[in-house]
Amino acid sequence: MANLLIGDIHGCYDEFMQLLEKASFSSSDTLWLTGDLVARGPKSLEVLRFVKLNSAQIRLVLGNHDLHLLSVYAGVAADHKKDHIKQILSAPDCDELINWLREQPLIQIDDDLKLIMAHAGISPQWDLATAKKCAYDINAVLTSDIYPLFLDKMYGNFPDYWSEDLQGFDRLRYITNAFTRMRYCYEDGRLDFYCKDSPEKAPSKLKPWFMLPRKIPQDYSIAFGHWAALNGKGTPDHIYALDTGCCWGGKLTCLRFEDKKYFRKRNIEAKLNK
Ligand SMILES: [Mn+2]
Question: For residues 73 and 76, what is the distance between their CA atoms, to the nearest angstrom?
Answer without folding.
Answer: 8
